[in-house]
Amino acid sequence: MNDLVRPMDLIPESAPFSPEQRSWLNGFFSGLVLPETGGVTPLSPQENAAVLGGDPADDGEAPWHDQTLALDARMALAAGRPLRRRMMAAMAQQDCGQCGYTCETYADALAEGRDERLNLCAPGGKDTARMLKTLAAESKGAPAPAAATTMAPTTTAAPGTTRDTPAQAILLSRRRLNREGSAKETWHVEFDLSASDLSYRAGDSFGIFPRNEPGLVDQIIAMLGASHVTPVRGRTLREVLLSDASLSPAPDRLFELLSFLTGGATRDRARRLAQGEDPDGDAAQLDVLATLQKFPQARPHPEAFVEALDPLQPRLYSISSSPRAAPGRLSLTVDAVRYVVGRRKRLGVASTFLAERLAPGETLPVYVQAAHGFTLPENPATPIIMIGPGTGVAPFRAFLQERAAIGAQGKNWLFYGHQRAAHDFFYADEFETMKATGLLTRLSLAWSRDGAEKFYVQDRMRQAGREIWAWLAEGAHLYVCGDASRMAKDVERTLVDIVAEFGARSADEAIAYVAGLRKAGRYQQDVY
After folding, report:
1. Considering only CA atoms, which of 475, 482, 474 is closest in space to residue 458?
2. Could you tell me how far CA 329 lies from the centroid of its own chain?
3. Number of helices and strands (H, E) in the chain?
4. Which of 146, 161, 458, 510 is the most buried if burial means most Cβ atoms within 10 Å?
């Protein structure tokens, strides 16, 4: 083996990476540029692993397991690693459980051939599915196939404990959480679990199997020029599109199918879309109906059309109740998603299903997704800090109910924020009562639209930085729930700044301290 060289410091210390991630990236990119800086032979992936103390056959911990990293950065960190690790890097790194696995176990199942479905990572979307297709093709030495939809082997798990063995729950009620005048539409949704023997813990998530909006399904059938009762898979076309098929976004296989039914420039555009390109600048807006409208001359046979669609996936929501506080019942906190693209209103499939299409008294298939590293401390005397703006407050309502039910003596601090105090203070009466009784030690609020400048939970954290550091020094656990792409990143940067300022640490030391909190299970995230 060549004499090993120390990786160059190409990644600045201010970059948003942990020390381990920065070290690996320095080694990786040094290998790319060293030939141009003196003719030194670049390190192989195995040699890089040796420099960093890793095993070239595998790496133990995954330095890319961070939902704030972009896909290309995660793939760079995983370059030269075994297939299962590169497949893991392709995941969205949220361990959300929506696929029925963690990111690591899903990658293992794909790499070992125990599951052939490449499109289960809902947070990763098309980018993850495309990368997995490339990696799967590489492993087989064949051209990249269409994303597989073969189902995993039948499991014998108890009903309601996995996505493959759902149980039935009854919708009890729903009530609007926003007051009149809010720009948002958020619902508190209650379920009856008594007939299903489902059990859960505070911190778990609830998987529901939604149905598509009937009006959208009818428009698609009309665009196909087909009958509602056309037989497909032993049922009618309408039944299959209502409950089995994902209608947004349009999958690559649909573009491939349409390319076979068209010609010339139209075929070329469909093929380019199937390959992940964006020839007309509208790829991000193309759901199934918009795709059929974009290629009106293509009318696929209903059976071929359904085969080209992705399966309709269950949706996961953080549970906002404790089973100790409401035995046999479960609640969710759900934002109804509605937006306009062009002149057409788009609807969130599961959120509007829960908000308006499912009637009280109706049943639906559900399951409980056990929390992966998002649980209360084992010692009830441990203080906790909870940061959950908007619907991110859901699991913290459950945490507080649980702490009250068991008589936990640990201090509780909640950071909550939304747009306007008068309209968007979810569970205000409950939290104010908890504060008055002493259960909620501190309640810190942030309203982004009530002042001249936007003000968020991370801004409130900065104001309370000294106290946050004091709680951490006492052994507090810190939890974050909500948006992964913006809020969670900003909260983590703020936390690092607080540790640096009030813990008298350098930037690198503060980053390492926060990484240590995460490794010790004292910094936990439930992000989406």
Report:
1. 482
2. 25
3. 20, 15
4. 458
Percent of the chain with pLDDT over 90: 72
Element holding 482 (H helix, E strand): strand 477-482
Residue 157 has pLDDT above 80, yes or no: yes
Kindly state the average pLDDT of the residues 418-434.
Answer: 97
Cα separation, 311 vs 524, whole angstroms: 31
Q: Which residues pair with 404 in a beta bridge?
A: none
CB 452 within 8 A of CB 498: no
Q: Are 32 and 51 in contact (CB under 8 A)?
A: no
Q: How far is CA 74 from CA 253, 302, 372, 526, in A?
A: 26, 39, 21, 20
Pairing verdict, β 235-236 and 231-232: antiparallel
Hey, how many other C-beta atoms are within 10 angstroms of the C-beta on 271?
17
> What residue has token string 């670049």?
42
Give the Cα separation of 395 and 167 in Å (integer).
22
**Amino acid present at 245:** A
Q: What is the pLDDT of residues 329-355, one digit of tens each?
A: 999 999 999 999 999 999 999 999 999
Nearest partner of 148 among 109, 172, 184, 120, judged by Cα: 120
Distance of alpha carbon 161 from alpha carbon 197, whole angstroms: 10
How many C-beta neighbours within 10 Å does residue 138 have? 12
CA distance 432 to 195: 34
Residue 338 three-state SS: strand
Taking the C-alpha atoms of residue 278 and residue 291, their distance in angstroms, rounded to an integer, is 13
Residues linked to residue 165 through DSSP beta bridges, in sequence order: none
Is the pTM higher than 0.90? The answer reads no
Strand partners, 418: 447
Give the pLDDT mean for 404-410. Answer: 97
124 in Cβ contact with 92 (< 8 Å): yes
For residue 212, the SS3 value is: coil
- With beta carbons less than 8 A apart as the criterion, state whether 513 and 473 touch: no
For residue 164, report the phi and psi dihedrals to the nearest 5 degrees. Answer: -85, -10
Q: Alpha carbon of 377 to those of 146, 380, 410, 480: distances in Å?
A: 44, 6, 10, 14
H/E element, 386: strand 384-387
